[in-house]
Design brief:
Layout lengths: L1 H18 L7 E4 L5 E5 L4 E9 L2 E12 L2 E9 L3 H18 L3 E11 L2 E12 L2 E12 L2 E10 L5 H10 L1 E2 L1
Antiparallel strand pairs: 1-2, 2-10, 3-4, 4-5, 5-9, 6-7, 7-8, 8-9
């Protein structure tokens, strides 16, 4: 009887441990064609689609992972020239903010020179009556431009996870 109880307890403990797997399973990702590295909180999926950014048609490749309804994503595309790549940063921000009917609560924009610019935003809105948050980093280098975003229900975006994802993005 004691042996059966021990075996049952051991089996129950193993099941409990398996059920307690971490939500965030961070993994490194290197884009095969867009020259960036980032750490995703789960296994990402990649797809490419044509989008219109304020009149500029581009094929954007998105790589994204989802954890508890929060989307962690990196988009990359190429513009005809550096000036249009920089203009794409604002166009991406406007489109994403509009999608959730958001208001930008903070924005930081820098232009280092003619070939590089960044925009960082934090925005709050609602989607179908649910409070949503968008945290984004937009960057252009030469003709290439990138969007690095975390989007989801406000309570599904722990600050430390958002920070870990955004700061892991590196161009090479």
């Amino acid at each position: 009887m004691t042996r059966r109880l021990f075996a049952f307890s051991a089996a129950a403990a193993l099941c409990l441990l398996a059920a307690c797997s971490p939500k965030y399973n961070w993994r490194d990702y290197a884009s095969p064609d867009a020259r960036y590295r980032v750490t995703f909180p789960a296994k990402p999926a990649t797809f490419t689609r044509n989008i219109d950014l304020d009149g500029m048609q581009v094929a954007m490749t998105m790589t994204a992972a989802e954890v508890d309804g929060a989307t962690f994503a990196v988009g990359a595309a190429e513009a005809p020239d550096a000036a249009r790549a920089q203009a794409a940063l604002e166009a991406m921000e406007v489109a994403l903010v509009r999608n959730i009917g958001a208001t930008v609560t903070s924005r930081n924009t820098t232009v280092d020179n003619n070939d590089r610019a960044t925009r960082d935003i934090d925005a709050s809105g609602t989607s179908q009556g649910v409070p949503m948050r968008l945290v984004g980093h937009f960057e252009s280098r030469g003709k290439r431009f990138y969007q690095v975003i975390v989007l989801g229900k406000t309570q599904a975006l722990p600050a430390e996870q958002v920070e870990q994802f955004l700061t892991s993005f590196k161009l090479h």
